[in-house]
Amino acid sequence: MIQYSPHIDEDEEEIEGVELTRTELVFQQMHARGRHWPRAIGVVEIITGIILTVLGVFEVFILPLIESKDGDELIIFNKGNCYGVGLLAGATMVITGSTGVRATLSKRDTTVLRFFNLTILSLIVYAGLTLFLIVAYANGWTAPDQYQPGSYMGEVHVFVTIFTVMGLLFALTGFVQYFDVICCGAIPLWVQWIRCFCGCFYRRPERLSLEASLREEFSSNNNPI
After folding, report:
1. How far, in Å, CA of 215 to CA of 211, rounded?
2. How far apart are CA 205 and CA 87, in angstroms?
3. Where are the alpha helices (DSSP H) in the chain?
4. ∠ at Cα 162 (56, 83), nearest 5°?
5. How far is residue 187's CA from residue 157's CA, in Å, rounded to a whole number?
6. Interatomic CA distance for residues 59 and 160, integer angstroms
7. CA distances from 189 to 2, 96, 113, 180, 183 (A)
8. H or E segment to which residue 101 belongs
9. I need a labelling partner for 142 at 20 to 30 A (CA). Which of 22, 107, 122, 200 fits?
10. In its keyword annotation, does this UniProt entry include Membrane (predicted)?
11. pLDDT for the residue numbered 36
12. Whose CA is closest to 52, among 95, 102, 101?
C-alpha cells in the first residue's frame, strides 16, 4: 500500500510565518528591545507616579494641615510648593505607566497609540516641570528661610524635585526606546495625527459589514491568475 504524504512547500511555510498583522509587527519591534520592556517601563512609571502623587499630597494638603497653628491655609498652592507640581507630575506618570501596561496586555492599535501619545505628552510635561523647578530654586522660592521654623515642607519639596527629575529620565528613556517605532514603524504616529486633526483632507475608509467583507474576500480569492 502506498501512503500519500502531502507535500508542503517550504516557501509557503516561510511566507505564513512572516505574515503578521500591523499590531503584531509593532509589538515585535517593541519586544526586540527587551522581552518585558513595555510592561517594565510601565510598572516603573506607575511606581514613580504614585510616589510623586503622595509627596504632592503631603505638600499641598497634609503638611499644611499638620503645621497650621490657627486653622488657616489648610490647602496651599503657592511658590513654596511650586503650586503643587508634585500632584501634576505624579498624575501624568501614573496615567502613562498604566497605559503602557495596558498596551502590553491588550495589544490593540488604539491602546498602543495611546501609550505612544502619552509618552510624548509626559516627556513634554516633565521637561516643563523640571524647568519650572529650576527657575523656582534660582529665584529662591523654595529656600529654607521661606518656610516656617521646624517645617518639613523644604525636605518634602527636595524629594519632589528628585523624583520629578527621575520621571523626566524615565519619560525620555521611553521616548528614545520607541522613537523609531513611533515615528518610522508600522504605525507612524504623525500619520495618525493627520488622520485625527485633518479629517477634511483624509477620509477614513468605511468599515465593511460581515456580509460585505466575506463577499469581497471570496471574490478576490476566486479571481483567475
Report:
1. 6
2. 41
3. 10-18, 22-31, 37-57, 63-67, 85-106, 109-138, 153-177, 179-184, 189-197, 210-221
4. 35
5. 40
6. 9
7. 57, 16, 7, 10, 6
8. helix 85-106
9. 122
10. yes
11. 54
12. 95
Q: Do 84 and 56 contact (CB within 8 A), yes or no?
A: yes
Helix/strand number for the chain, H first, E second: 10, 0
Provide φ and ψ at 209, rounded to 5°: -70, 170
User: pTM for the full model?
Assistant: 0.72
CB 188: neighbour CB atoms within 10 A? 13
Using the structure block, give the residue that is written with the C-alpha cell 513654596.
80
Residue 66 in grid coordinates: 499638620
> Distance (Å, rounded) from C-alpha 154 to C-alpha 80?
8
Closest residue by Cα to residue 163 from 51, 43, 83, 41? 51
pLDDT on residue 58: 94
Q: Return the residue matching grid coordinates 509626559.
A: 122
Instruction: Write out 197-214 in H/E/C secondary structure.
Output: HCCCCCCCCCCCCHHHHH
* Position 120, amino acid: I
Residue with cell 502506498: 2
Q: Grid coordinates in use for 45?
A: 512609571
